[in-house]
Known about the structure:
Blueprint: H1 6-15, H2 21-32, H3 34-39, H4 42-49, H5 53-62, H6 68-80, H7 96-117, H8 120-135, E1 140-144, H9 147-161, E2 167-169, H10 172-181, E3 187-191, H11 198-209, E4 213-218, E5 230-233, H12 247-267, H13 271-282
Parallel strand pairs: 1-2, 1-3, 3-4, 4-5
Amino acid sequence: MTAETGGMLDRIRASLPSLAPAEQRVGRLVLADPRAFASLPVVELADRAHVSKPTVVRFCRSVGYDGLSDFKLKLAGSVSEGVPFIHRSVDLDDKTGDVMVKVIDNAVAAFLKYRNDASTSAIERAASALAATYQTGRRIEFYGAGNSGIVAQDAQHKFFRLGVTAIAYSDGHMQVMGATMLGPGDCVVIISNSGRTRDLMDAADIARKNGATTIVITASGSPLASAGHIHLAADHPEGYDRYSPMVSRLLHLMVVDILATCVALRIGTPLQPVLKQMKNNLRTKRYA
Protein backbone atom coordinates (compact mmCIF):
# COMPACT_ATOMS: atom_id res chain seq x y z
CA MET A 1 0.00 0.00 0.00
CA THR A 2 1.28 3.45 -0.87
CA ALA A 3 0.97 6.59 1.24
CA GLU A 4 -1.12 8.11 -1.52
CA THR A 5 -3.98 5.62 -1.26
CA GLY A 6 -3.69 5.10 2.49
CA GLY A 7 -6.73 7.14 3.53
CA MET A 8 -9.16 5.57 1.08
CA LEU A 9 -7.90 2.06 1.74
CA ASP A 10 -7.98 2.59 5.50
CA ARG A 11 -11.66 3.45 5.25
CA ILE A 12 -12.37 0.35 3.14
CA ARG A 13 -10.42 -1.84 5.55
CA ALA A 14 -12.37 -0.43 8.52
CA SER A 15 -15.68 -1.03 6.72
CA LEU A 16 -15.00 -4.65 5.71
CA PRO A 17 -16.45 -6.37 8.82
CA SER A 18 -19.83 -4.65 8.32
CA LEU A 19 -20.13 -5.66 4.64
CA ALA A 20 -21.86 -8.71 3.16
CA PRO A 21 -19.46 -11.60 2.35
CA ALA A 22 -19.64 -10.98 -1.41
CA GLU A 23 -18.91 -7.27 -0.95
CA GLN A 24 -16.00 -8.17 1.33
CA ARG A 25 -14.44 -10.06 -1.56
CA VAL A 26 -14.65 -6.91 -3.69
CA GLY A 27 -13.08 -4.92 -0.86
CA ARG A 28 -10.19 -7.35 -0.55
CA LEU A 29 -9.65 -7.06 -4.30
CA VAL A 30 -9.32 -3.28 -3.96
CA LEU A 31 -6.90 -3.61 -1.04
CA ALA A 32 -4.77 -6.15 -2.91
CA ASP A 33 -4.22 -3.96 -5.99
CA PRO A 34 -5.88 -0.52 -6.00
CA ARG A 35 -4.21 0.56 -9.26
CA ALA A 36 -5.57 -2.44 -11.15
CA PHE A 37 -9.05 -1.99 -9.65
CA ALA A 38 -9.14 1.64 -10.81
CA SER A 39 -8.35 0.67 -14.40
CA LEU A 40 -10.17 -2.63 -15.00
CA PRO A 41 -13.72 -2.89 -16.44
CA VAL A 42 -16.55 -4.05 -14.18
CA VAL A 43 -16.77 -7.44 -15.94
CA GLU A 44 -13.12 -8.18 -15.09
CA LEU A 45 -13.52 -6.91 -11.52
CA ALA A 46 -16.57 -9.09 -10.95
CA ASP A 47 -14.76 -12.12 -12.37
CA ARG A 48 -11.67 -11.59 -10.20
CA ALA A 49 -13.75 -11.17 -7.03
CA HIS A 50 -16.07 -14.07 -7.97
CA VAL A 51 -19.16 -11.88 -7.62
CA SER A 52 -21.82 -10.42 -9.90
CA LYS A 53 -21.47 -7.01 -11.56
CA PRO A 54 -24.25 -5.48 -9.36
CA THR A 55 -22.32 -6.62 -6.28
CA VAL A 56 -19.31 -4.55 -7.37
CA VAL A 57 -21.56 -1.49 -7.63
CA ARG A 58 -23.22 -2.24 -4.28
CA PHE A 59 -19.81 -2.45 -2.64
CA CYS A 60 -18.90 1.04 -3.92
CA ARG A 61 -22.12 2.45 -2.50
CA SER A 62 -21.72 0.59 0.79
CA VAL A 63 -18.38 2.29 1.44
CA GLY A 64 -19.86 5.72 0.73
CA TYR A 65 -19.48 6.46 -2.99
CA ASP A 66 -22.11 7.24 -5.62
CA GLY A 67 -21.30 4.13 -7.66
CA LEU A 68 -18.49 2.38 -9.49
CA SER A 69 -17.56 5.36 -11.66
CA ASP A 70 -17.31 7.70 -8.66
CA PHE A 71 -15.34 5.11 -6.68
CA LYS A 72 -12.86 4.42 -9.50
CA LEU A 73 -12.45 8.15 -10.18
CA LYS A 74 -11.54 8.83 -6.53
CA LEU A 75 -9.31 5.77 -6.39
CA ALA A 76 -7.50 6.67 -9.61
CA GLY A 77 -7.06 10.25 -8.40
CA SER A 78 -5.53 9.04 -5.16
CA VAL A 79 -3.16 6.67 -6.93
CA SER A 80 -2.00 8.96 -9.75
CA GLU A 81 -2.16 12.41 -8.17
CA GLY A 82 -1.22 11.28 -4.74
CA VAL A 83 -1.23 13.05 -1.41
CA PRO A 84 2.29 12.83 -0.02
CA PHE A 85 1.05 12.50 3.52
CA ILE A 86 3.45 11.47 6.20
CA HIS A 87 2.25 12.81 9.54
CA ARG A 88 5.34 14.37 11.08
CA SER A 89 5.28 14.85 14.81
CA VAL A 90 7.05 17.81 16.37
CA ASP A 91 10.35 16.86 18.01
CA LEU A 92 11.82 18.35 21.18
CA ASP A 93 14.79 19.85 19.32
CA ASP A 94 12.73 21.38 16.48
CA LYS A 95 13.34 25.05 15.75
CA THR A 96 10.40 27.43 15.27
CA GLY A 97 10.70 27.13 11.50
CA ASP A 98 10.54 23.33 11.72
CA VAL A 99 7.44 23.49 13.90
CA MET A 100 5.72 25.90 11.50
CA VAL A 101 6.43 23.71 8.46
CA LYS A 102 5.32 20.49 10.17
CA VAL A 103 2.07 21.91 11.53
CA ILE A 104 1.12 23.54 8.22
CA ASP A 105 2.17 20.56 6.09
CA ASN A 106 0.18 18.17 8.29
CA ALA A 107 -2.95 20.30 7.97
CA VAL A 108 -2.66 20.89 4.21
CA ALA A 109 -1.97 17.23 3.46
CA ALA A 110 -4.92 16.14 5.63
CA PHE A 111 -7.23 18.49 3.70
CA LEU A 112 -6.02 17.14 0.35
CA LYS A 113 -6.45 13.56 1.54
CA TYR A 114 -9.98 14.35 2.70
CA ARG A 115 -10.78 15.92 -0.69
CA ASN A 116 -9.80 12.64 -2.39
CA ASP A 117 -11.47 10.34 0.15
CA ALA A 118 -14.70 12.15 1.06
CA SER A 119 -18.03 10.60 0.15
CA THR A 120 -20.04 13.19 -1.80
CA SER A 121 -23.19 11.08 -1.46
CA ALA A 122 -22.97 11.16 2.36
CA ILE A 123 -22.44 14.94 2.35
CA GLU A 124 -25.41 15.39 -0.01
CA ARG A 125 -27.64 13.29 2.25
CA ALA A 126 -26.55 15.25 5.33
CA ALA A 127 -27.04 18.64 3.66
CA SER A 128 -30.46 17.62 2.33
CA ALA A 129 -31.53 16.43 5.80
CA LEU A 130 -30.41 19.69 7.44
CA ALA A 131 -32.07 21.83 4.76
CA ALA A 132 -35.32 19.86 5.06
CA THR A 133 -35.25 20.24 8.85
CA TYR A 134 -34.78 24.01 8.49
CA GLN A 135 -37.58 24.34 5.93
CA THR A 136 -40.05 22.50 8.14
CA GLY A 137 -39.11 24.52 11.23
CA ARG A 138 -37.91 21.51 13.21
CA ARG A 139 -34.95 21.38 15.63
CA ILE A 140 -31.29 21.29 14.57
CA GLU A 141 -28.71 20.53 17.27
CA PHE A 142 -24.94 20.04 17.35
CA TYR A 143 -23.20 17.91 20.00
CA GLY A 144 -19.50 17.61 20.78
CA ALA A 145 -17.32 17.02 23.85
CA GLY A 146 -14.10 18.78 24.75
CA ASN A 147 -12.32 19.96 21.61
CA SER A 148 -15.24 18.75 19.48
CA GLY A 149 -17.57 20.83 21.65
CA ILE A 150 -15.85 23.93 20.31
CA VAL A 151 -16.44 22.68 16.75
CA ALA A 152 -20.13 22.18 17.64
CA GLN A 153 -20.30 25.81 18.80
CA ASP A 154 -18.66 26.92 15.55
CA ALA A 155 -21.28 24.94 13.61
CA GLN A 156 -24.10 26.60 15.53
CA HIS A 157 -22.58 30.01 14.76
CA LYS A 158 -22.20 29.27 11.04
CA PHE A 159 -25.78 28.06 10.69
CA PHE A 160 -27.05 30.98 12.77
CA ARG A 161 -25.46 33.36 10.26
CA LEU A 162 -27.50 31.62 7.56
CA GLY A 163 -30.70 32.30 9.45
CA VAL A 164 -30.90 28.69 10.60
CA THR A 165 -31.87 28.40 14.24
CA ALA A 166 -29.67 25.76 15.87
CA ILE A 167 -28.23 25.00 19.27
CA ALA A 168 -24.93 23.47 20.39
CA TYR A 169 -24.37 21.41 23.54
CA SER A 170 -20.97 20.40 24.91
CA ASP A 171 -22.26 19.18 28.29
CA GLY A 172 -23.09 15.46 28.44
CA HIS A 173 -26.21 15.91 30.56
CA MET A 174 -27.57 18.60 28.24
CA GLN A 175 -26.86 16.38 25.23
CA VAL A 176 -28.85 13.50 26.70
CA MET A 177 -31.71 15.84 27.65
CA GLY A 178 -31.63 17.51 24.22
CA ALA A 179 -31.64 14.14 22.42
CA THR A 180 -34.60 13.06 24.56
CA MET A 181 -36.58 16.07 23.28
CA LEU A 182 -35.85 15.30 19.62
CA GLY A 183 -38.25 13.44 17.36
CA PRO A 184 -39.08 12.68 13.72
CA GLY A 185 -38.19 15.61 11.47
CA ASP A 186 -35.49 16.89 13.83
CA CYS A 187 -31.78 16.63 13.04
CA VAL A 188 -28.71 16.27 15.27
CA VAL A 189 -25.06 16.45 14.19
CA ILE A 190 -22.66 14.69 16.57
CA ILE A 191 -18.95 15.47 16.27
CA SER A 192 -16.22 13.32 17.80
CA ASN A 193 -12.55 12.72 17.04
CA SER A 194 -12.30 9.30 18.70
CA GLY A 195 -15.88 8.20 18.10
CA ARG A 196 -15.75 6.52 21.51
CA THR A 197 -17.07 9.17 23.92
CA ARG A 198 -19.73 7.61 26.14
CA ASP A 199 -21.96 10.69 26.46
CA LEU A 200 -22.03 11.23 22.69
CA MET A 201 -22.79 7.55 22.07
CA ASP A 202 -25.67 7.74 24.55
CA ALA A 203 -27.04 10.88 22.90
CA ALA A 204 -26.77 9.31 19.43
CA ASP A 205 -28.68 6.21 20.55
CA ILE A 206 -31.44 8.28 22.17
CA ALA A 207 -31.82 10.62 19.18
CA ARG A 208 -31.94 7.75 16.70
CA LYS A 209 -34.48 5.77 18.76
CA ASN A 210 -36.66 8.90 18.96
CA GLY A 211 -36.72 9.11 15.16
CA ALA A 212 -34.44 12.13 14.69
CA THR A 213 -32.03 12.12 11.74
CA THR A 214 -28.61 11.48 13.28
CA ILE A 215 -25.49 12.69 11.45
CA VAL A 216 -22.08 11.75 12.85
CA ILE A 217 -18.75 13.35 11.97
CA THR A 218 -16.11 10.95 13.23
CA ALA A 219 -13.45 8.37 12.38
CA SER A 220 -14.31 5.31 10.27
CA GLY A 221 -14.52 2.07 12.17
CA SER A 222 -15.35 3.76 15.48
CA PRO A 223 -18.49 2.84 17.50
CA LEU A 224 -20.05 6.24 16.77
CA ALA A 225 -19.52 5.81 13.00
CA SER A 226 -22.19 3.11 12.92
CA ALA A 227 -24.47 4.75 15.50
CA GLY A 228 -25.99 7.36 13.19
CA HIS A 229 -28.06 7.42 10.02
CA ILE A 230 -25.41 9.34 8.07
CA HIS A 231 -21.66 9.00 8.66
CA LEU A 232 -19.33 11.77 7.44
CA ALA A 233 -15.91 10.15 7.74
CA ALA A 234 -13.16 12.38 9.13
CA ASP A 235 -10.06 10.19 8.99
CA HIS A 236 -6.52 11.34 9.72
CA PRO A 237 -3.34 9.82 11.18
CA GLU A 238 -3.37 11.95 14.32
CA GLY A 239 -4.05 9.74 17.33
CA TYR A 240 -7.30 10.55 19.13
CA ASP A 241 -5.46 10.38 22.46
CA ARG A 242 -3.28 13.39 21.65
CA TYR A 243 -3.43 16.03 24.38
CA SER A 244 -3.70 18.85 21.85
CA PRO A 245 -5.44 17.70 18.65
CA MET A 246 -4.76 19.97 15.66
CA VAL A 247 -5.42 18.22 12.37
CA SER A 248 -8.64 16.64 13.68
CA ARG A 249 -10.07 19.99 14.81
CA LEU A 250 -9.30 21.65 11.48
CA LEU A 251 -10.76 18.70 9.57
CA HIS A 252 -14.00 18.84 11.56
CA LEU A 253 -14.26 22.60 11.04
CA MET A 254 -13.82 22.09 7.29
CA VAL A 255 -16.55 19.44 7.18
CA VAL A 256 -18.87 21.88 8.96
CA ASP A 257 -17.97 24.57 6.39
CA ILE A 258 -18.83 22.19 3.55
CA LEU A 259 -22.15 21.28 5.17
CA ALA A 260 -23.06 24.92 5.84
CA THR A 261 -22.25 25.91 2.26
CA CYS A 262 -24.30 23.04 0.81
CA VAL A 263 -27.25 23.87 3.07
CA ALA A 264 -27.04 27.57 2.09
CA LEU A 265 -27.20 26.61 -1.59
CA ARG A 266 -30.27 24.46 -0.93
CA ILE A 267 -32.04 27.28 0.93
CA GLY A 268 -31.21 29.54 -2.01
CA THR A 269 -32.76 32.93 -2.79
CA PRO A 270 -34.57 33.56 0.55
CA LEU A 271 -31.16 33.86 2.22
CA GLN A 272 -29.94 36.82 0.16
CA PRO A 273 -31.94 39.67 1.77
CA VAL A 274 -31.25 38.33 5.26
CA LEU A 275 -27.49 38.16 4.68
CA LYS A 276 -27.49 41.62 3.11
CA GLN A 277 -29.38 43.10 6.06
CA MET A 278 -27.07 41.38 8.54
CA LYS A 279 -24.02 42.81 6.77
CA ASN A 280 -25.50 46.32 6.84
CA ASN A 281 -26.38 46.06 10.53
CA LEU A 282 -22.86 44.93 11.41
CA ARG A 283 -21.23 47.92 9.69
CA THR A 284 -21.85 50.08 12.76
CA LYS A 285 -19.71 47.65 14.77
CA ARG A 286 -16.59 48.47 12.76
CA TYR A 287 -14.36 51.51 12.57
CA ALA A 288 -14.49 53.25 9.20
